[in-house]
Amino acid sequence: MTELSRKIFSDYQVRRKKEQKTRFIEFMQKNIPSITVEEGGVPKSRNLIVGDVANAKVIFTAHYDTCAAMPFPNLIMPKNILLSILPILAGFVAVTAALYVLAYLITDDLFISYDISTFVSLLLLLSLITLGRPNKNNANDNTSGVITLVELMDRLSEQEKEKVAFVFFDHEENGMIGSSFFEKQHRRDLLDKLIINFDCVSDGDNIMLIQSKKARNKYEKILKETFLPTHDKNIFIEKALRAIYPSDQMTFENSIAVAALKKSKIGLYMDRIHTKKDVIFDESNIEYICSGMKNFLSRILNER
Question: For the whole prediction, is pTM greater than 0.90?
Answer without folding.
Answer: yes
